[in-house]
Amino acid sequence: MSVARTFLFVPATRLVRIEKALATSADVVIVDLEDAVSADDKNAARQIVQRLEPSRPVFVRINAATSDQFHEDVALVSTSPWISAVVLPKVESSSDIEHFRSEASREVDVVALIESSAGIIACDEIAHSGVRRLMFGSVDYTTELDAPPGPSLFAYPRSRLVVASAAAGLPAPVDGPTTIIGDSAALRDETVEAFGVGMGGKLCIHPNQLATVASVFATTLSERAWAQSVMSAFEENSGGVFVVNGEMVDAPLVARARRILET
Question: What pLDDT sits at residue 253?
Fold first, then answer.
């Protein structure tokens, strides 16, 4: 959960597509019961999910707490122990998380997908509600604000989620998807923008997006070399403040170097 960077959505409507998604390089596969499934197909999709015997743990995005599909989705999660986490969409307060936990009959990790202005304003309390990670639902957010998607619109919500996550001791949040599947340049630009403000991963809607996202979020060789030199100097100096290649290093930089080497 904490080091995953690529999150691949796959509709719950076709078993063969789910199996193909599980065979990709995605750090996490999210089987989608929400937006990717029409109202008429919800029951059939749940039946497919119920029959799954996945080769690795998966996440499932259920329908929102305000949806008439919510209770049936929670019942499915409660009887499917192979579901390692639930992505709860349209989270706008900690009460949405509490609602899910009160309905579910087993403990399961919750990832909060924040998709609205209300959710962004409440992201601090959501981050402290016991969730394992925050995700940014950029598509719904763009629709609500009726503004062109892009770095200007996304800078504020991304930064809010990054700070809220850090303050709550959560991993860096996950950015929303790039919806133009065939535009690799746009995908890289959006991923670089997200990485630059501190996001820790990105939602993907096609397997072809995985390699680009992974490459942007991967720790570079130079970063690992820097981290190793910092930790070596740290051990030699027994802590305190010291200099590595002309750079003053103190406790915060040592902590950053340690995190890099742990990923």
Answer: 87
> May I ask the CATH class of domain 6-217?
alpha beta
Radius of gyration of the chain (CA): 20
Report DSSP letters for the chain, one per residue.
--S--EEEEEETT-HHHHHHHHTSS-SEEEEESSTTS-GGGHHHHHHHHHT---SS-EEEE---TTSTTHHHHHHHHHT-TTEEEEEE-S--SHHHHHHHHHH-SS--EEEEEE-SHHHHHTHHHHHTTT-SEEEE-HHHHHHHHTS--SHHHHHHHHHHHHHHHHHTTPPPPEEPPP--TT-HHHHHHHHHHHHHTT--EEEESSGGGHHHHHHHHSPPHHHHHHHHHHHHHHHHHTSS-EEETTEEE-HHHHHHHHHHHH-
What is the distance between the alpha carbons of residues 45 and 119, in angstroms, rounded to a whole number? 28
Q: Is the predicted pLDDT of residue 34 greater than 70, yes or no?
A: yes
| Residue 258 neighbours by CB distance under 10 Å | 13
- The Cα-based distances of 172 to 47, 197, 218, 219 in angstroms read 33, 10, 14, 14
Beta bridge partners of 30: 9, 59
Residue with tokens 């809220």: 164
Lowest mean pLDDT, pick from 37-41, 60-64, 112-116, 237-241: 237-241
CA 54 to each of CA 19, 32, 82: distance values in angstroms, whole numbers, following the listed order: 8, 14, 8
Beta bridge partners of 61: 32, 87
Distance (Å, rounded) from C-alpha 158 to C-alpha 253?
23
Task: Judge whether 9 and 28 are in contact, CB under 8 Å.
Answer: no
